[in-house]
Amino acid sequence: MNILIVNDDGIDARGIELLVKAAKPYGRLFVVAPKAQQSAVSQGITIHEPLQIDEEVDKFPDVQAWSISGKPADCVKVAIEYLRLDIDLVLSGINDGPNLGTDILYSGTVAGASEAAIFNIPSIALSTDFGSWEIAEREIAEVLEYLIKGDQLKAGVILNVNFQLREHRKSNGIRWTRQGYRIFSAKFRHDNGRYWQEGDWVPTENLADTDVTAVTEGFISITPLGIDRTIDDHPMLEAK
Q1: Beta strand pairing call for 183-191 and 194-202
Q2: For residues 106 and 99, what is the distance between their CA atoms, to the nearest angstrom?
Q3: What global pTM score does this model have?
Q4: Would you say residue 184 has pLDDT above 90?
Q5: In terms of residue numbers, what domain contains 144?
């Protein structure tokens, strides 16, 4: 199996290093990752400026790797449409910070996996609590074995994985979930004529079967996502 690994934290990030190490038993790996931090860029692509694409010969032992000046979705496009890699699975991450609920609308990590879904390739996005690399390193092997060897992959489906929050040192297991709600409230800091967007997440009530509840209760959350955002039961669709 040919596996493409991308991320949004950049090719030098700790998370992609852990993911490459964990994915090696499952096939031939290729890495295409941003040169620099690309968090919260969602599924943007670079069309108004040129891309720089550099082969990283010594970055990961025995793994072909490239860094690009673009975004996570660009990474998938470069791999498939420029490098012409024949990819069977895309792994995106491991992200430094959760991608829960409405975070996925902004997430570059989920966007990398979503771009794979456009090409009808199975994909997995993986995220851990901020700075919780010991959790990700401990849990990643079990998760990949469960999803890949357990035949949980499906063409065009994004599996959004979030490891438990850091206060739960050991997970309570894996829970399949729905996307919940996690609203980011922005605050703007003025500094010498520039405005920095900062803020935090607003406490939001979530149902028991959501990703937000699962990780809060110490579970590893797996949420199947798609790229079709149509509301099937909208009355205007029913009327037609």
Answers
A1: antiparallel
A2: 9
A3: 0.93
A4: no
A5: 2-239
